[in-house]
């Protein structure tokens, strides 16, 4: 829990507190919005946010580290193509966080340029935990040294890696122009870096605050996004009185004017966020209403909702990421209502049948990664991990036992 909140706070801190937009507000899941408002209130004497967490119903849910990593993407401005490549890379990370697929291989599977994949991988390597997306141990350590802003350690790894593997410490000292004591200090720093930044088998308990609920009203489904924050968020009346004081200098008055305007904007954006989320969620629920009747999901992309709402795809992406609703089917992650439309069919049964056919026709046993690659020819882009899940569901052993 603590680790998850630390990651959220780091992501919030990426935002320049002097320049925030409506897009930032709709990006925040409720728990991130609360963290942002706490920091705003600390920084702005005109803004009061005396938040009582005991008044907010919380749900604890186990999530994978992959989900956590994916949700960091909504803090970064990018196009839909780049986001899709980023998600593909995340889905295909090794259990320890490394990315072992060749850039050319990803380029062919996704039918995108080599440079597009490189750009997406660089984005992944900026996410938490530091070191994910590295192709090897050296790159993993370089990412961490850069994140720690340790120039000497970065230079040591970049220029002396081969010498270090051969334990040629005298040559390292000469190349770095450092004495034995200083080299030992650098090596001790190196030992503290994490060679395995990810553990995909580990589940993390995360606090979830649902945005609202879906209620059946006759034959219709109505979305209500709760107003959980406005009661705690207000302008500070004492500072407003101070602002009117004739003793203020022009410089002080300009400073306070800026602060009070910002406080008013924050309060306004909280309410606009609620209204906008409700409209978007209602569009999504209306589109997927059959899911709540018979469990069937229709193909739905962020682009579809963006066109209907007359907003950008990135705006819809920000709205749905990390958001939950309480529905007649229980707690629902909004993003789970979006289903990619495959070339021939969108059903899971279709994918399972294709996997079964590929395995049946294999001349030599194929790994889950190789099966995932072949599925790409049918317009089906899923991770080896998903292939593994479907294969186990069918009771088909892995390539070593076939």
What this model shows, in words?
By secondary structure, the protein is α+β, with helices and mostly antiparallel strands. The protein has three domains: 1-58 and 209-339, no CATH class; 137-191, no CATH class; 348-393. It has 19 helices and eight strands. Strands 5-4-7-8 form a four-stranded mixed sheet. Strands 1-6 form a two-stranded antiparallel sheet. Strand 4 and strand 5 (220-225) form a beta hairpin. Helix 15 (302-309) packs across helix 16.
Blueprint of the fold:
Layout: H1 2-13, H2 22-27, H3 30-43, E1 47-49, E2 59-64, H4 65-71, H5 80-91, H6 103-110, H7 114-124, H8 137-147, H9 151-165, H10 169-176, H11 180-191, E3 203-208, E4 212-217, E5 220-225, E6 233-235, H12 237-243, H13 250-287, H14 289-294, H15 302-309, H16 313-320, E7 324-327, E8 330-333, H17 348-360, H18 368-375, H19 384-393
Parallel strand pairs: 4-7
Antiparallel strand pairs: 1-6, 2-3, 4-5, 7-8
Helix pairs in contact: 5-7, 6-7, 8-9, 9-10, 9-11, 15-16, 18-19
Query: Poorly predicted ranges (pLDDT <50, ≥5 residues)?
Result: 1-18, 342-346
Q: What structural class do helix, strand and pairing data support?
A: alpha+beta
How many separate structural domains?
3
The proportion of residues in beta strands is 5-15%
Spatial arrangement of strands, main beta sheet:
5-4-7-8
Proportion in helices: 40-55%
Total strands: the figure is: 8
Strand/helix succession: HHHEEHHHHHHHHEEEEHHHHHEEHHH
How would the global form be characterised? flat
Q: Supply Rg.
A: 25 Å
Mean pLDDT: 82
- In DSSP terms (H or I, runs of 4 or more residues), the helix count works out at 19
Distance between the termini: 41 Å
Major beta sheet summary: 4 strands, mixed
